């Protein structure tokens, strides 16, 4: 009888610990579910920002022809400058990911749930790598060449913050010819770098769009599997 009582107590304790771990795993999933919804909202904002940038930079080809014909006809360069001076990046909502890593929470999740989270995080790391290397280099190239050709007194009033880019009516205005030197070689270099920057901006947009699609699929996956609202 004593052995049976001890054995039953052991089973009860194991069941209680298993239930606690199951509840903690569910809490992690619920928390991650909310993080993913937050991520998709901010990704949508970033995609809208990049779409606007891509649309503006797509006018560079007509602008190139205009400026090369007359080096004083630089009005069209204003909006190109504004949309190539700054960038918005996406930062993952890592509240739950940090808890899972620091508290050893991954061991509480079933394999499918854990693998789905790791896959999303790895996709984000790929995005970060692209942005900190290829994209950042193209951004720096455009800025550095512009600094060699632009008239400070014309460009300085238009060195706007990222938030100001929403106002195209001011970003397209220049107070005079933008070029400080009449160097078509440097000017051609800037437009070439601007073309690469446009391609890398498209690459960034596609990368973050893949992240959004992954986040949306995970939201649906957790919603169906764990009956979340």
Describe the structure.
The structure is a single chain. The chain has 229 residues and is an all-alpha fold. The protein is built from eight helices and no strands.
Helices and strands in order, then pairings?
Blueprint: H1 2-57, H2 60-69, H3 77-82, H4 95-102, H5 111-149, H6 152-155, H7 168-171, H8 184-226
Features:
229 residues; mainly alpha; 8 helices
Summarize the structure.
The protein is an all-alpha fold and 229 residues long.
Biggest sheet overview: none
CA(first)-CA(last) distance: 48 Å
Strand content: under 5%
Task: State the helicity in percent bands.
Answer: over 70%
Mean pLDDT: 84
Q: How does the overall form come out from the CA principal axes?
A: elongated
- List low-pLDDT spans: 6-13, 160-172
| Element order: H for helix, E for strand | HHHHHHHH
